[in-house]
């Protein structure tokens, strides 16, 4: 039994030794078990011996060659990095590809904003009374006047803003970034950063190759900003905030023709207006009689007040030149006109307040201080209306100065003695007694207008007098004055008449209708004292001193009519509110219009 068992054991051992000594290629040819594809958990696991070599079982297998492992790892890494490499190559190709931009010679706008898109290219981007924005490529400069300039692209020259802020946030600016009365913000590569009466702010990406100049503001610099030149900061100790308040007032008030508006950054304008209103109240409180006197002058003589204001405006430069030979003449004139202008503005506010409160008070005047306050509130509200605001401010100041000057002239002028009016004694009408003798048939003795009763003998000897119609004296003191609507009717008739005549004239005269109408009125006023429309409506122009309307009076009244016309027709409408029924040109010429009774010839 020992021999068979021993033989079986030796056969199994030989078979195992043969399996261990097979070549590596033969082992790879056989399908590996499922566990062979998994990575080994222990690096010390036995590895197959090289081909054609025998290995002892009691010796550890050699490590695999390092070269083979490195090549395998490189192959795997190369295979995994192929998509990333392709993506990077695609990105690099897109980046290196030149951007195609649309060429624009110039982008210039007025009263609006200028914008250059990122796919556009222009030589300049300019905006007047607006803001300029560039996101593309600009060869020269980006400029805005009364607006802000912003650049996020490439600019060859400069970024400039006048009365606004300048911003450079991207690309490269070959020249300086400048702001006048505004802030300068830089967050890219620029040559210089300059702000006049504004602040300079440098962002973290700012690179300034030359200098940073700030006049009248402060420099705010990020720690990461690079400045290769000097920083010159000339500050007055006041941060004006880039004059944002002035820029807001210009864009929201000045450009719209008004001195005041509601909104942010405009509180300073309201404080100035309220300060002047307080000054007018003080003048009315200190000089109430002077304010009332000037307001009465405006109501009684608006035409002379306007004429005086016009003459003061025309003669002030000439007076300044004449007084320039003295050292104190011109400053004294300027101070006198300034004080008269302030007092005149108070007078105008008082007059407006009295006009508003007069219907409510039953015609009784109110205290000048209260009248100035009411008129001031109304005028401040009118200041916020576009175009109307500046017109009201200028007209009230200009007319107020004329009222004050004319009042001073009228106070220093000697009053003229009124002409004596001799009234004839009234005539008495007495009946002549009939004589005892019978009168001749057909003879009627009319009553005689006389102061004495004639005798019967003289009555029979004297022929009877001829009865005549009484003579009507056309005078401003004896006839009623014409109202507003009857004047309008007469003027419309004259306009229709002159308009029909102009239609028959050559084309050259048609645009000059106003001049022809004024000539028509002046000629007829000088000849007959009325016009065709006045004859139809029974109107006649008379002088207040009962003298004849001569040519100088007609010319002055015509020129005054232009003044009544250019003030939006206010001089004509004045008749409806004036107690003397006079227009402005009537007051200037010293005339008025009366209604003549029917039957009296005006020709």
Counted by DSSP, the helix tally is 17
Query: Which whole number gives the mean pLDDT?
Result: 74
Strand content: 15-25%
- Percent helix range: 40-55%
Structural class: alpha/beta
**For the report, how would you describe the main beta sheet?**
10 strands, parallel
Radius of gyration computed on alpha carbons: 53 Å
The tally of strands reads: 24
Shape annotation = elongated
Pick out the low-confidence regions: 1-6, 12-47, 66-70, 89-96, 416-422, 427-460
Give the N-to-C terminal Cα separation. Answer: 179 Å
What do these coordinates show?
The protein has 603 residues and is α/β, with parallel strands linked by helices. Among the domains are: 102-244, no CATH class; 257-412, no CATH class; 484-595, no CATH class. It is built from 17 helices and 24 strands. The strands form 5 sheets. Strands 1, 3, 5, 6, 8, 9, 11, 14, 17 and 20 form a 10-stranded parallel β-sheet that branches. Strands 2-4-7-10-12-15-18 form a 7-stranded parallel β-sheet, with no helix packed on it. Helix 8 crosses helix 10. The protein is elongated and about 100 Å long.
């Amino acid at each position: 039994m020992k021999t068979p068992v021993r033989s079986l054991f030796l056969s199994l051992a030989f078979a195992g030794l043969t399996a261990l000594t097979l070549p590596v290629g033969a082992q790879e040819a056989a399908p590996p078990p499922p566990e062979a594809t998994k990575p080994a958990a222990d690096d010390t696991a036995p590895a197959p011996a090289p081909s054609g070599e025998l290995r002892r079982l009691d010796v550890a297998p050699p490590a695999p060659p390092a070269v083979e492992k490195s090549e395998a790892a490189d192959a795997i890494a190369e295979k995994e990095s192929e998509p990333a490499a392709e993506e990077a190559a695609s990105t690099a190709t897109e980046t290196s590809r030149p951007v195609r931009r649309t060429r624009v010679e110039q982008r210039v706008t007025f009263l609006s904003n200028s914008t250059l898109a990122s796919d556009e290219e222009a030589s300049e981007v300019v905006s007047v009374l607006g803001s300029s924005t560039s996101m593309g490529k600009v060869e020269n400069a980006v400029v805005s006047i009364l607006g802000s300039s912003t650049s996020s692209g490439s600019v060859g020259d400069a970024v400039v803003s006048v009365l606004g802020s300048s911003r450079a946030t991207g690309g490269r600016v070959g020249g300086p970034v400048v702001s006048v009365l505004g802030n300068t913000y830089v967050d890219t590569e620029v040559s210089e950063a300059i702000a006049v009466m504004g602040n300079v702010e440098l962002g973290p990406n700012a690179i300034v190759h030359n200098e940073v100049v700030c006049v009248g503001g402060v420099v705010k610099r990020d720690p990461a900003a690079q400045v290769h030149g000097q920083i010159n900061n000339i500050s007055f100790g006041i941060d004006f905030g880039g004059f944002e308040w002035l820029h807001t007032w210009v864009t929201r008030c000045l450009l719209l023709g008004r001195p005041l508006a509601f909104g942010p950054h405009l509180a300073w304008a309201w404080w100035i207006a309220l300060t002047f209103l307080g000054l007018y109240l003080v003048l009315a409180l200190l000089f109430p009689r002077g304010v009332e006197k000037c307001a009465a002058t405006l109501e009684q003589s608006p035409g002379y007040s306007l004429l005086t204001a016009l003459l003061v405006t025309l003669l002030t430069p000439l007076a300044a030149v004449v007084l320039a030979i003295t050292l104190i003449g011109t400053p004294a004139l300027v101070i006198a006109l300034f004080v008269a202008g302030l007092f005149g503005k108070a007078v105008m506010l008082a007059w407006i307040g009295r006009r508003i409160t007069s219907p409510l008070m039953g015609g009784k005047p109110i205290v000048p201080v209260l009248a100035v306050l009411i008129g001031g509130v109304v005028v401040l509200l009118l200041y916020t209306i576009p175009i109307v605001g500046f017109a009201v401010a200028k007209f009230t100041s200009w007319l107020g100065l004329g009222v004050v000057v004319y009042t001073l002239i009228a106070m220093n002028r000697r009053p003229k003695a009124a002409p004596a009016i001799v009234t004839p004694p009234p005539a008495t009408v007495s009946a002549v007694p009939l004589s005892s003798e019978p009168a001749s048939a057909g003879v009627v003795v009319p009553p005689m207008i006389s102061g004495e009763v004639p005798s019967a003998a003289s009555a029979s000897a004297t022929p009877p007098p001829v009865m005549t119609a009484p003579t009507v004296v056309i005078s401003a003191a004896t006839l009623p004055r014409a109202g507003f609507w009857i004047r309008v009717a007469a003027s419309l008739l004259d306009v229709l008449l002159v308009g029909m005549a102009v239609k028959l004239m050559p084309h050259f005269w048609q645009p000059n209708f106003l001049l022809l109408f004024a000539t028509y009125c002046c000629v007829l006023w000088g000849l007959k004292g009325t016009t065709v429309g006045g004859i139809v409506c029974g109107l006649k122009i008379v002088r207040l001193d009962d003298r004849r309307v001569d040519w100088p009076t007609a010319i002055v009244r015509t020129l005054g009519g232009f003044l009544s016309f250019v003030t939006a027709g206010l001089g004509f409408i004045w008749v409806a509110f004036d107690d003397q029924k006079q227009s402005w040109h009537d007051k200037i010429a010293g005339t008025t219009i009366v209604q003549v009774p029917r039957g009296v010839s005006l020709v």
